[in-house]
Automatic annotation (TrEMBL):
This is IS110 family transposase. Keywords: Coiled coil. It comes from Halobacillus amylolyticus. Residues 5-164 form the Transposase IS110-like N-terminal domain. It comes from the Bacteria. The lineage of its organism: Bacteria, Bacillati, Bacillota, Bacilli, Bacillales. InterPro entries: Transp_IS110-like_N, Transpos_IS110, Transposase_20. Residues 243-277 form a coiled coil.
Length: 399
């Protein structure tokens, strides 16, 4: 016998369907919760299936973001073999049924059937705790950066309605010195009512690591900006309230991002791969840390093409009869974060000719008539082959 248990995982609970062997379901499907009692109920049933079949069953389920984490941790504690399936794969299998029916019971049943249909399934290998910590921090940094950018746009919208000429005072509008100064003088009237020396003192206290003369120069510029500003007085107090709120938020985001960057750098330094990947011109610390966290242990890939597929930059194939498509898009079925960071790494490598080998490869593709985006994807493919070779051989990149 070849027993399997299919789990359709949802938030806080899972639907279960067991099979003793192909086309031989065991008992009725049921649900269990993702708490201590529910997981022990699942384990008792697991032991029952093991006794009925004469061998330990494997468990198969879809990746569901973070909902499957309690189940996955429990399976690892009990040393139960499990298969974590990409939802794209299971979705394709479900479409083979002519009837368009979707319930938790049927989904659990289909996952059990999938185990017998797919010959190349590989048991899940969880990334190390160190790698997962790096991945979580990197993804949190990306998420926070996205929110930070949105807040900057909203901040500018409010600033345009309160004190638009302020943008010309500081070269770095979002520097702590600039934001703290604006918090003290949110309108042109506030600036006009203040002496230049007092404004310079506020700028200096705002953290400016410059001379007193520089602070005085900025204070004079702020005075001039106040004279040019079209809003001689602020009619809407709501605008200044919103402006102050966004300033506080931007300062907090900067602090949080700085703390995350320090944590990421410290953790990434523990990886030998961090130094190896950074040896490729154009790849800095943040990009290298993200690549490491998304790839994990390189030993789980026995061929560079598997790593390319994991990144989702392998070309799709469309053939039917005598027809063979000449324009094929990439599959985009792997790690979207790895795909994005590879694209960024290519752009950095091509900028200012930082990576001559990559630049030469790009120019070659362009001479072959490839469009810019196609050439960039080809470069990403080449880059991931280099990364695979470096990590496997534990060698630095040779220009």
């Amino acid at each position: 016998m070849d027993p399997v248990i299919g789990l359709d995982i949802a938030k806080g609970e899972s639907q279960l369907q067991a099979f003793l062997q192909k086309k031989n379901p065991y008992k009725k499907s049921f649900k269990f919760t993702h708490d201590v009692l529910g997981l022990h109920e699942f384990h008792r049933f697991y032991q029952e299936v093991e006794q009925a079949s004469g061998q330990p069953p494997v468990v198969i389920f879809e990746s569901t973001g973070h909902y499957h984490e309690p189940v996955l941790q429990f399976l690892e504690e009990q040393k139960i073999t499990d298969y974590l399936i990409n939802p794209v794969i299971s979705h394709e299998v479900k479409k083979t049924n002519l009837r368009k029916v979707k319930t938790d019971v049927i989904d659990a049943f289909h996952l059990g059937e999938l185990y017998y249909k797919e010959d190349d399934l590989e048991a899940f290998q969880k990334k190390s705790i160190r790698t997962m910590n790096l991945r979580n921090l990197s993804r949190q940094h990306d998420s926070l950066t996205g929110t930070y950018v949105q807040n900057k746009l909203q901040f500018q919208t409010i600033l345009d309605q309160v004190f638009p000429e302020y943008k010309r005072v500081f070269g770095a509008l979002y520097s702590p010195t600039s934001l703290i100064t604006l918090r003290r003088y949110p309108t042109s009237k506030d600036v006009r009512d203040e002496k230049v020396e007092d404004i310079a003192q506020v700028i200096r206290q705002g953290g400016a690591k410059r001379s007193q003369s520089w602070c005085l120069e900025k204070a004079h510029k702020l005075k001039e900006a106040a004279k040019r500003d079209p809003f001689k007085c602020n009619l809407y107090r709501s605008h200044t309230v919103s402006l102050n709120m966004y300033i506080q938020m931007l300062l907090q985001y900067q602090e949080h991002l700085s703390n995350l960057e320090e944590e990421i750098d410290a953790l990434a330094e523990e990886f030998e791969e961090y130094r190896l990947i950074q040896s490729i011109p154009g790849i800095g610390g943040k990009i290298a840390a993200t690549i490491i966290s998304e790839i994990g242990e390189i030993d789980q890939f026995n061929h560079p093409k598997k790593l390319v597929a994991y990144a989702g930059i392998d070309p799709s194939v469309h053939e039917s009869g005598k027809f063979k498509a000449t324009i094929n898009t990439i599959t985009k079925r792997g790690s979207s974060r790895l795909r994005q960071i590879l694209y960024t790494a290519v752009q950095c490598g091509l900028t200012k000719n930082r990576n001559p080998k990559l630049k030469e490869f790009y120019e070659k593709k362009r001479e072959e008539g490839k469009p810019h985006k196609v050439a960039i994807i080809a470069c990403a493919n080449k880059l991931i082959h280099w990364i695979y070779a470096l990590l496997k051989r534990k060698e630095v990149f040779k220009v």
